[in-house]
Amino acid sequence: TSPTITYTYSNTTTANDPALLGRGDETVTVTAGWSESADMGLPRPDLIATYGDATTDTLTFVDNDDNKTWNYSLTLPSDPLMDGEIALSSTSSDSAKNSDFIYVNDTTFMLDNTAPTVTNISPSSSSFVKAGEMQLGYTITELTGAVETGTVTYKKVSGPGSDFSVALSGAELSDTTHAQGDITNQNTINSSIVDSTLYNIVFTSVDSAGNTGLDSVTQVKYDISNPRVSLSFSDTLVRGDSTVLMTATFSEILDGGSVPQVMVKYANGAGTVYDDLEYVALNDSSDDASIWYLSINIPSSLNATGNVLINFDSTSVSDFAENQLDSIAFSNVLVIDNTGPTGTLSYLTSAFEADTDRLWGNGGDGVTVTVEWDEHAVISPGPRLVIDYVNSADQIVDHDEYVGNNTVWTYQISSLSSDPLDDGRLSFSVEGTDRANNAMSVYVNNDTFLLDNVAPVVLNVLPGDTSFVNTSLIGYTITDTNGKLESGNIAFKVVGGPGSNFDLNLVDTEIDTGAHAQDSLTNHAVITASIVDSTLYNIVFTSVDSA
């Protein structure tokens, strides 16, 4: 009958903690207990160890208690290729020369020089993680089964956060694939992780043999901030039929699959939407994935006047952590102005410097013209004043020195035309635009100033020349460009007879232009008191118009 050899092991380096396990350079005492005595006529039994890579080693003989109990010593090798169960076999035979041994516990001692590994880690390297999704997934590979301890360290690479660690526990240490999800100490992760921080995630695993594994993923960005966008425009005040380049600068680089979609709305002055586009895609900058562009063709309709509204389809904008667009900021505002400005003109002539109600002048007069705009004008070049004469060529006048107010412009006309053919109401206009490049479209008082180079004329005087009258009633007709005269006087000049010269002033409606029937005058008492019978008079009208 073949003898039975039963092996027992004692790791003297670790004091058998853990049992039946060791790693390189540790010393193990092996006792071979024979069920019957070994043949002492042969060389003593040797104990052979066969390792995982099929290499062998002869254990060092220590001693024997008797012919049945043999003690050996083994220094464990450090080569990981030799890892696994160590298979023991013996030489020699029993006294009956039986050498086909039956072994007990011959493959129960485990050599482990290999550190555990953690693979398939989620989140992966160079990934972006948003709020609520910093969950771990991983696979532990370990020769001996579950690892003894496992720690996950979040090491800050950059950003505002700090390093922190969490321990794996229970089933989280088993050598298997662990689906991505919350761990027992998930609250520690959630409370310690900081937005906008870049981490390396390092798994430290220690197996029962004391081998330590370090496995990691790198450059994991925790990002719970939604992207923001700032809009700017190549022009901020424009008119229809122009093109404006809108630049959208996002607070971070967008996910590679994101193509921002915007809707452009044009609101009229009442604040209601005039027209809008469907969502249109922005164009990406070739050198920066956080900057995008859109060319906007401005409509010319008057209904489009007002602020341009920009709406984003928030689902079309996401960062690498899949956070969607949160807010829009405007570094400047795009305004459409499709209406021309209104200009209100006022005048001050050199002949009547203190009287702004005098809306007339004559040739040679200097006139100060002030134009008040209802919106801001372009200042370079500044607006010029144009005088449209009836007969003469237009006169163009540059504005006074600009002093900071681009809604009030003053012009000095050094001398009005003296050509009587230019008489009448002058037409003033402005060469210039508002900041949206609209020319002035509405004028107030631009055709109220009267040029008068012709003296008033009194016609149809009654009594007429070489007449004989027995009445003192006077009739006449006044003609003048300006309308009502400034003053009028009638002088009775004695040509012959006993009378004397005298005169009287015309007042009120008596100096209006038009026909005045022969009648008593306001100052008729002067005539009745001064006129003398049998006297020959020349009746002389002196008239002064407003110019």
UniProtKB/TrEMBL annotation:
Record protein name field: Uncharacterized protein
